[in-house]
Design brief:
Pfam families: KH_NusA_1st, KH_NusA_2nd, NusA_N
CATH class of one domain: Alpha Beta
Protein name: Transcription termination/antitermination protein NusA
Family: Belongs to the NusA family.
Keywords: Cytoplasm, RNA-binding, Transcription, Transcription antitermination, Transcription regulation, Transcription termination
Number of helices: 15
Subunit structure: Monomer. Binds directly to the core enzyme of the DNA-dependent RNA polymerase and to nascent RNA.
Strand order of the largest sheet: 7-6-5-8-9
Low-confidence stretches: none
Mean pLDDT: 87
Number of strands: 15
Length: about 425
């Protein structure tokens, strides 16, 4: 084995990975000391001199000269006068012998083992370096290139050729990738699996949306605008609460940009995710009202103990407050941290309606609760919808919906 080439290549690797010189020398010395212990049982009386820059290695063995008949002659740090004079003829008892041990003296097998150990140390260092590097990047956006598309995940590589994993669960449902395509995502988490670093990316995390705002809106990046909270239904809808500490800056306007110029690039990156940017306020009533945008709220009743909010709207605003598939109300609840219940307010000229609670003898309470969650709190509000609409809005089975419609319709016959 060419020791010089091995040491030089190791030193070059260490330099590229920003491994400090003392660590590099320590690893090299550990490998060679292991080799010494295997041959001589101990390395106490050995010195190793490494010049990593030139690839030089020197191993020196130190022993005290004793009389040929001495009982200490078999100690690891002793040498008989007779053997010492084979090295230098003028040696005397009591002197110290410094003898250089050549690498070939260890035998081919020992040298090959040392080489394999050093290669393994290099691999371990590289894994540790990769783990630490990405551990510090958790929550940050990185760019990767798609190199393999699997059923449960997409594999990407970074600029250094390291493997990154984007699981199906962390992909936006509308994401479609092609080999060689560049993909942006955040580093979601880093874990060690069987000694190998596993780098997991995410495009569905609220933090990804937050980082996109930082990259597209200079005021957010500079800290003039703070993102207070982000909630998402990835690829469908998101709500972002923002606040400015400078009265001269309109946080919503700055985030959206002139004619939506700033937010458009974020929307495109997120597969046309509909993003509502909301001005944060400590006024809970106002915050709830803004969170249910674009619906217009008539009145709000807040139950602090139960963490529930009753919101009253005109009939034509109920569907806006709930949103497609209940997304708007679900995201609003997450944003404000309260469970929001939507109720219709009847106009004076509207025909008399009957609250669903009045049917509790005929309709099970959990079914009534399920309907109320979607803003359907009266008999007529339920009857105004088709079976298909009710099925989409609730988790009720078709047979249950038929029963409910029959019971409610009988009230007005």
């Amino acid at each position: 084995m060419d020791t010089g080439v091995l040491i030089e290549s190791f030193a070059e690797f260490a330099k590229n990975k920003n491994i400090d010189r003392p660590t590099m020398i320590r690893i090299l010395e550990d490998v060679f000391r292991t080799m010494i212990r295997k041959k001589f049982e101990t390395d106490d009386n050995f010195d190793i001199i490494i010049n990593a820059d030139k690839g030089d290695l020197e191993i020196w063995r130190f022993r005290e000269i004793v009389d040929d008949n001495s009982e200490d002659i078999w100690d690891h740090d002793k040498i008989s006068l007779k053997d010492a004079r084979k090295i230098e003829p003028d040696f005397e008892i009591g002197e110290e012998v410094a003898e250089e041990v050549k690498l070939e003296d260890f035998g081919r097998r020992a040298v090959m083992t040392a080489r394999q150990t050093l290669i393994q140390k290099i691999k371990d260092l590289e894994k540790d370096y990769l783990f630490q590097k990405y551990k510090e990047l958790v929550g940050e956006i990185i760019l990767g290139e798609v190199y393999q598309i699997l059923s449960k995940e997409v594999l990407l590589i970074d600029a250094e050729g390291n493997e990154l994993i984007l699981p199906k669960s962390e992909q936006i449902p509308k994401d479609r990738f092609r080999k060689g395509e560049s993909v942006r995502a955040i580093v979601h988490r880093v874990e060690m699996v069987n000694g190998n670093p596993r780098i997991i990316l995410s495009r569905t995390s609220p933090i990804f949306l937050e980082r996109l705002f930082e990259s597209e809106v200079p005021e957010v990046y500079d800290g003039l605008i703070t993102i207070k909270k982000v909630v998402r239904e990835p690829g469908e809808r998101a709500k972002v609460a923002v606040e400015s500490y400078d009265d001269r800056i309109d946080p919503v306007g700055a985030c959206v940009g002139m004619k939506g110029s700033r937010i458009h690039s974020i929307v495109r990156e997120l597969q046309n995710e509909n993003i509502d940017v909301i001005n944060f306020t400590e006024n809970l009533d106002l915050y709830i009202s803004r969170s249910l945008s674009p619906a217009k709220i008539n009145s709000i009743k807040i139950d602090e103990d139960e963490k529930r909010v009753a919101v009253y709207l005109k009939p034509d605003q109920v569907s806006l407050a709930i949103g497609k598939g209940g997304q708007n109300i679900k995201l609003a609840s997450k944003l404000v941290g309260y469970e929001i219940d939507v109720f219709r307010e009847l106009e004076e000229y509207e025909e008399e309606d009957v609250d669903l609670v009045e049917f509790s003898d005929e309709i099970e309470s959990w079914i009534i609760d399920e309907l109320k969650k979607t803003g359907l709190d009266t008999a007529k509000s339920v009857l105004a919808l088709s079976k298909e609409d009710l099925g989409r809005r609730t988790d009720l089975e078709e047979e249950t919906i038929d029963d409910v419609l029959n019971i409610l319709s009988q009230e007005f016959e």
